[in-house]
Amino acid sequence: MANIIWSIVWILILWFLMWPIAGLLAGFWILFMPFEACFPALKEINTTLLKWIQYCEKVGENIKSGSPLQSS
């Protein structure tokens, strides 16, 4: 039963926190991507943005496993 509760908590985190953040960051990532070859500093920024965008996958894994917040 506890796994179901943690999965619901992770779904709420995904829905209300991670998707809006990832959507906003994806817009910046797409905007900066073509200029990465011209401005080397953008490569580090894009790498960081991509890590945050891909954090939604980690949240999805936690939904599937029902792991508690402390284990993330």
TrEMBL record:
UniProt keyword annotations, A-Z: Membrane, Transmembrane, Transmembrane helix
Transmembrane segments: 6-32
Domain of life: Eukaryota
PANTHER family: GEO11419P1
Protein name per the record: Uncharacterized protein
Organism from which the protein derives: Brachionus calyciflorus
UniProt lineage: Eukaryota, Metazoa, Spiralia, Gnathifera, Rotifera
